[in-house]
Design a protein that fits this description.
By secondary structure, the chain is mainly α. Helices cover 88% and strands 0% of the residues.
């Protein structure tokens, strides 16, 4: 009877040991899968972070460029009235000079006034 109990315990011990080893193997495999997934997620998150940093940098540059463009447009707009007034004055001056020049080249008494008569 003692031998029978020993054999039964030996078989049960072997069965328990095998099932424990199988469980440990499955746990190791599951752990490897989880670690692999974790590494892939870390790489994806790193790529997303780098992409976000690049996008923020580009957007900051774009914002600065747009602000500079807006400032330039505002300055031009503010000076637009001055520029138009200056152009009107220049046109008036040119018209006056043209009128004076034409009046000097008109013939006096029907005569053509040449360059030597100016």
């Amino acid at each position: 009877m003692k031998e029978l109990i020993k054999r039964i315990l030996k078989v049960l011990g072997h069965a328990l040991t095998v099932s424990v080893h199988e469980r440990l193997d499955r746990t190791d495999h599951t752990l490897d899968v989880v670690i692999d997934q974790n590494n892939r997620m870390a790489r994806a998150q790193t790529a997303l972070l780098q992409s976000s940093i690049h996008m923020v940098t580009v957007l900051n540059r774009l914002q600065a460029d747009l602000e500079a463009l807006k400032e330039t447009a505002t300055r031009l707009s503010d000076r637009g009235g001055e520029l138009i007034a200056d152009l009107d004055q220049a046109l008036a001056s040119v018209s006056e000079l043209k009128r004076i020049a034409e009046s000097r080249t008109e013939p006096a008494g029907g005569e053509d006034a040449g360059p030597d008569k100016l």
